[in-house]
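dumping this here so i dont lose it again. seq + smiles for zinc ion
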Amino acid sequence: MRFTYCKDCGTLLTETLIGDEGLVPYCEVCHKPHFDYAPVCILTMVINEDNEVALLKQNYVSKDHLVFVAGYYKPGESAEDTVRREIFEEIGQEAIDIRFIKTHYHPRLDTLFLLYITTVKKRPFRLSSEVDDVNWYPLPIDESLLNKEGVAYMIYQAYKAL
Ligand SMILES: [Zn+2]
């Protein structure tokens, strides 16, 4: 996303040449550049001590496929804090080990995804209102459960390659 107006004072931005960055939207009132921006979203496989993965049914995300835990980064957190918070909020599990895998820019959502694999100690699920259902699935899973175009499928491929 590119800023048109200053996010602090609302002035229409001009384009100013800033070194190697090229033309950057600039506020002449605040004397500040406003660099292009994309929201950051974490997505994580959640695996327990029995080598089972949590697959979520979230009808607002997909009617046909299952997904992994995901959620938007909030300023003030580390990305690992976001992973820990989202796993607890969505399915009531506590992260023990959080392993970063890779990043992926999603053009349609204009969002940067950070992909993780998180280990938890299995405990009873407690679902947020955003989650319609969740179950543990022994690994490896049937890949047709995931959307082949989706980010969850991408991280599952990365997991298999480890
Ligand atoms: Zn301004």
